[in-house]
Amino acid sequence: MDIRLEEAIKLLWLREEGWDERELAPINKYSINERDYRELVKKGYAEEKDGRWVLTDQGRHIGSEIIRRLRLAEWLFSEIIETDSRFSNEAACRLEHILTEEATERICILFGHPRVCPHGKPIPRGKCCGKQKTDLKPFLLPLYHLRENESAKIISINIDDRRIKHKMASFGLIPGVCVKIKKRRPVFLIEMDGSVFSVEEKIAEKIFVKRT
Amino acid sequence: MHNHGLPLKTEKIKKKIVLVGNPNVGKSVIFNHLTGKYVTVSNYPGTTVEIYRGFLKGSGENVLVIDSPGVQSLLARTEDEKVTVSILLEEDPDVVVLIADAKNLKRAFLLLFELKLFNFPTVLVLNMWDEAKMRGIEIDEKKLSSLLGIPVIKTVAIHGRGIRELFMSVEKASVPEIDFSFDKKIEKVIKDIKKIIKEPIERERGILHLFLSGEKISEERLKNKLKEKDFKRILKIREDLEKILPEPIEFVLISDINKNVQKILDGVIVKREKIYKNKITEFLDKFMIHPFWGYIFLGFVLFLLYEFVGVLGAGVFVDFLENKVFGKFINPFIIKIFNLLPLPSVIKEFFVGEFGVFTMALTYGLAIIFPVIITFFIAFGILEDSGYFPRLATLLNNFFKKIGLSGRAVLPMLLGLGCDTMATVTTRTLETKKEKIIVTFLLALGIPCSAQMGVIMALMSGVSFSAFLIWAFAISFNILLVGFLASKIIKGKESFFLMEIPPLRVPSFQNILFKTMARLEWYLKEVIPIFILGTAILFIMDKTHILARLEDLFKPVVKNILGLPKEAAIGFIMGFLRRDYGAAGFYRLKEMGLLNVSQLIVSMVTITLFIPCIANFLIIIKERGLKTAVYISLFIIPYAVFIGFIIRIILEKWPV
What we know:
The complex is a heterodimer. Chain A is an alpha+beta fold. Chain A has helices at 3-17, 21-24, 34-43, 57-81, 85-98, 101-110, 162-171, 201-204, and strands spanning 46-49, 52-55, 141-142, 151-157, 178-183, 189-192, 195-199, 207-211. A six-stranded antiparallel sheet of chain A has the order 3-8-4-5-6-7. In chain A, strand 5 (178-183) and strand 6 (189-192) form a beta hairpin. The mean pLDDT of chain A is 84. By secondary structure, chain B is an alpha/beta fold. In chain B, strand 3 (50-55) and strand 4 (63-67) form a beta hairpin. Chain B starts with 14 loop residues before the first strand and ends with a helix. Helix content of chain B is 65%, strand content 7%. In chain B, strands 2-3-4-1-5-6-8 form a seven-stranded mixed sheet, with helices on both faces. In chain B, helix 12 crosses helix 13. Chain B contains 28 helices and ten strands. Chain B is elongated and about 75 Å long. Chain B has helices at residues 27-35, 82-91, 105-118, 129-134, 141-148, 163-169, 184-197, 204-212, 216-225, 228-244, 249-268, 279-289, 293-340, 345-352, 357-386, 388-401, 410-416, 420-426, 433-446, 450-461, 465-489, 509-543, 546-561, 568-577, 579-591, 597-609, 614-624, 626-653; strands spanning 15-21, 40-43, 50-55, 63-67, 95-101, 122-127, 137-139, 152-155, 269-271, 498-501. Classes of the chains: A alpha+beta, B alpha/beta. Chains A and B meet through helix 7 and strand 7 of A and helix 3, helix 7, helix 11, helix 16 and strand 10 of B.
């Protein structure tokens, strides 16, 4: 698909996510304008509603793939290539248009199917996110795979059970915090800022971390 | 549980202070310093969480201080943490004293930011800063104070350091000057809801955030405030927000706060790498959760518990109180008085007869059960404050999984040793419905409460240790067997285990004393009246010959199946009222010389497994529903008799 069209879809997506014009302006590097939006309408990706452009279901489908590529690419730059955040945004913006489906999937696996980008924005789920097994070794490890006394930063928590997530949140075990493995056996103990938690194996398997 | 404590003279109270903090930061020690003593201890409505209230020292009775249970976060609450949110909303304090562990400011700051949403005037206490210093953490409290615009006080509460400064700072409490915002989507939703509410409500920001996180009191307040149509609209807004957020709302709220917390802390904390290790606690820590030594340690703890509660409490103290104090002095004295009074013999018997208020209810309640309760609560308090229980839960997790429970279930079961009724309420903190049902069931079936265990120990201590061991083995075996079978039959979601393990600490003597006193007060108010009521019922049944008829009615079961004298039926009838009361019924039989060792074991096992007491039954109905309660009872009664029968057969073959 044409880059301009993809950019236009992206902008409409972000607007629906709640970004305002002031924030969108610096992202709009291709100077997307009314003409592009009208083009989207012609192709059936967008429609006009109450004087605003909104995505159709078809447009939203394409949009979710673009956003997914963009935000997974952000992970690649911020955590592996470790570029400065300004630069990584720009790089990710370009990569989003050229990543193949397979490459996207592999990045997704590499980061343990993250639900949010490094800035905390949601990543649309892909086909791979439901599956667990893969031959590719993720760059992000499940917490459970660390050795004793190793430290790591929690990157994503791939757990659907809301009760578990709620509990983790109440302990402050959320993406971005650093934890240390205090003990592996007989029970898995992790330490965060001086507090110790006993975590069951099946939960520790689903917390994805990056060694620090 | 209800509030039970002296009513406070509310008209005199000019100011309310609520203490808030993470668990294990020394809140209760600071509470003791601020108030000198508690005025009331109450269980928070619908929970077993104890709330302490007292007056600020030197304030006359003008300033009320309320201690709240430790919490990690207000916006993401676990079941037991809801209480703190309720206290803050319902008491609406004039000052919040936020107590932080200086070693771990980050977690306290999550609370500080959350409190800021409510605009409570706040004082920040950095407790245990000596420990922080030892670990190489330096905090610039002056800078922090000017940055936040609130008093920041360093204390070492257990040594009383910094307390004077804390007293003086309460007057200067003010709303923290923290400026931060949440994710755009959340800010937008807040704005939308504010538009619907129109005129601002009190503590608006905080209430709205609580509402978004699904908290009930704030939801109720908004519901009362708004027209039904508008309330439905904001419910819809929350629902829509849930759909577009990648994570649960409370997860997003906390993540957003944490990002801002780090920014502030970076400027005021200096951490020098310094590895601090306490060899003794480190060693004990390993020991307690070790898959082999952990069980040895558990055995050791149980042995000490038996020595302290069983031998000292139920043996020595009970013997002293019952035989010397009540047997030689109090009861003969009271009987003499009644004999001197010109009263009809029925009334005399009501007070000092076979089923008399003094000779039975008070003698049992005070002489037999009271010493056991005291020793048990002291021992329990020490174990509770030392931090052993979470370690035990961790140790037993793998084992408990086999009976379909997680290690967390250990806590309600241990609490059940205190009081099964209270423990049934705490099953709420378990994660799955399946676990809740199984633990409720096991509590009703076989966990003897402290009072019942006390009577049993008192009964057994005079007989033989092996009799006690047979009883203990029979009960544990049945709990495991029934738990295992129940987990196969009852369907439900798998449970999970995630628990904080607080550091090991030497319990504070003052705190143990404090708690034990509070719990004794509860015992006296709750239990003694039931004993008196039960004895009165027995007295009437005895006088109207109903008791004799019931004895005959139950004779086939009691005598033919269990091999007990027919008088034992009284024990089972008393067991319907309270577990310990039932056991006390057998105490009477034994004193009358009607039971031999085998019969004693059979009756103790049966009465332990026998029906839960009335209070427990009512709570089961409340927590799990009438159907479950009836099913549980329908299973338990024949099962208890069946097991009693088996034990009888075994003991006839192989006598002790």
